[in-house]
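Q: Could you fold this chain for me?
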Amino acid sequence: MSITTIIVFAIITAIIAYFWYATKKMKNMPLVAENEHIVTLTNANMQHQIKNGVSLVDFWAAWCMPCKMMAPVINDVAQEAAGKAKICKLDIQEFQDMAAKHSVRSIPTMILFKNGKEINRFVGVKSKDFLMNELNKVL
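A: Sure. Below is the predicted structure, expressed as structure tokens.
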């Protein structure tokens, strides 16, 4: 084997090892604690919670890396929107029928409701400013 082949093989092995380690580390990352203003939704309470006023519902799952990235953003939005709008979370792994009912096909998905009716839908990672602007449009 030539020196070049050995070096290339070593670099490729190092890159693969790094991505394996990084992926394993992210999967074991703990969940961010929820803000006290966030309402946890279930099949039993969802319709009651979103029927009056403005509600932003975050459809998420514990195994979803983008959902874990959104957790601090959702906490900040809940803190800032307290008293003006409800910020809610629904675990799609636990309540799959609710996710299906609202046609959630990828996560994170955030649905903005006003008086129980869907106003807007956002898929993927969004910033706090973006979500606050969308909330303020319907408040």
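A (continued): DSSP finds five helices and five strands in the chain.
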